[in-house]
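Task 17 of the worksheet. Students: predict the tertiary structure of the chain below and write it out as structure tokens. Keep your answer in the requested format; marks are given for formatting as well as content.
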Amino acid sequence: MIRLFGRHPYVMSILALSLCLAMFFAGRFTLRAIYWEAHRQEPVAAWMTVGYLGRSWGLDPREIDRLADLPVPNGGPLTLEEIATIRSVPVTQVITEVEAAIAALLAEQAGATKDGKP
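Model answer:
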């Protein structure tokens, strides 16, 4: 290996860098896969964003926004608590609306799979 590095330093440096990058992205992928496997179908809480809920439940966050009549995020994501503050309603009301939207989307998915559609 040392002889190869001595003969072809640029090629071996590129190979070493490529291996380091591959290990970095493989580790990142593995950690995310483990995290989301453990956080599937999390109960709705005030600290969550619609994007987090969409990822946790495997649903489109914009569909959750549409069904729950939530504002589309403008800039950074908003937590359900922040949405409740903006709308001047209790956070429990927003949570109930989001839970109903999730249930409707899950029922829609279940109906689509029964009909033979993906």
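Marker's comment: Residues 54 and 60 are 6 Å apart (CA to CA). The two ends are 51 Å apart (CA to CA).
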